Write the structure tokens for this entry.
Amino acid sequence: MTDTPKKTAIVTGASGGIGQAVALRLAGDGFAVAVHYSGNAAKADATVGEIKAAGGRAIAVKADVADPADVAHLFKATRDAFGTIDVVVNSAGIMPLTPIVEGGIAAFDQVIATNLRGTFIVLAEAAKHVSAGGRIIAFSTSVIAKSFPTYGPYIASKAGVEGLVHVLANELRGRNITVNAVAPGPVATDLFFNGKTDELIAQLTKLAPLERLGQPEEIAGVVSFLAGPDGGWVNAQVLRANGGYA
């Protein structure tokens, strides 16, 4: 890596799971990285430390993606630190599971606020600040195709994300900025394991023809492709990285 990387990436939700893997991969690709987190400063600092130990540049920035002022601060801090914003990856998300019949409005509002409102705010800010030739990447989910019970709020939020991606790609016509989404299948992260029984985990693990869970690094590789030179002709797409899960 050079002392002054030519490009900069913001990765939301980068203190753990897929987001952390994405931050590390993009740093390895030569990006300076703004490691966004919402609550776990220690894990974000550890991610920054790992990037710096490998010779890269990174900062940790706390923000609530559902708060426009916080997201504006995230982008300003990144520009102040690195001078440019070339790639934005919005991987921040939550997955509370609740049956629709129970009318869990609190859980529904929470997941919509983070996953859909948060994506809208991050995409809006990215559209203002990403340089020409840049990339904007959101996260959807392959579970949209499955319609599993209790996944209603989560699926609703991610279906909305896919709609936003298609619209923003058209709105950025002429600026040479691509807008895409990555839709993972089951991936071995705390977000996936949380709240699931061993039996359910085993069942979900076997759904894909490859009969295993994805790894965060595999999803990071897809993001790296979209953010890199080989992804320049991919635009307004949802890449379903799921081992054939759906």
The two ends are 38 Å apart (CA to CA). The helical segments are 17-28, 41-53, 68-82, 105-129, 152-171, 190-193, 198-205, 216-227. Confidence is low (pLDDT under 50) at residues 1-5. The longest helix spans residues 105-129.
